[in-house]
């Protein structure tokens, strides 16, 4: 006789389940999220700030430089280069002499910055091609004899970079146009003007700065007679073969 199985224990009723948590989709549906402000476009970007105005210190510096240059021009014109002094110029400008040295280094640098040179060359259109050499040399001797500013600038230019650049500018701006007028080849104009300058400045250096006795003793008419044909050739002759 087979034994019967014991009855199964009664089952426990299932526990009630809790309501499902709302999903992110449903949460966003029930409470709309705040929208962020749109990014500014290039059109709405703020304009760049204007350049800063000159500071009081810069304005004082410019005013000081202007006062020094004005006083230097008047003092050089009244006393000449040799007798004018940094101390006298500073006194005229109502500043300490050390300020002049600070801005311009020495008298040579100040002179190069302050001086204005006008060679007062004749109008090239008024010169004949056959006589341009003599006319130019005669004019330069007149300028050298009457204007010690040119001599001072030549002296400064031989020893001071600012003076050299100032002298270069004078000849570049005033002699070069005359060479353009008479030179047979436009490409050679700078070289021709440099050759002309070498003769005129060389004579001025030996006669007025270094004061070689034979150059000083030479009559102006004789010097013109020597130099004029050379200047004429530099300006008008064909390129040497």
UniProtKB/TrEMBL annotation:
This is AcrR family transcriptional regulator. SUPFAM superfamilies: Homeodomain-like, Tetracyclin repressor-like, C-terminal domain. Residues 85-104 bind DNA. One of its GO terms (molecular function) is transcription cis-regulatory region binding. The keyword Metal-binding does not apply. It comes from the Bacteria. It comes from Streptomyces calvus. Pfam families: TetR_C_16, TetR_N. Residues 20-56 have a biased composition (Low complexity). Residues 1-19 have a biased composition (Pro residues). PROSITE patterns: HTH_TETR_2 (PS50977). Residues 1-62 are annotated as: Disordered. Residues 62-122 form the HTH tetR-type domain. Keywords: DNA-binding, Transcription, Transcription regulation. Gene3D superfamilies: Homeodomain-like, Tetracycline Repressor, domain 2. The keyword Cytoplasm does not apply.
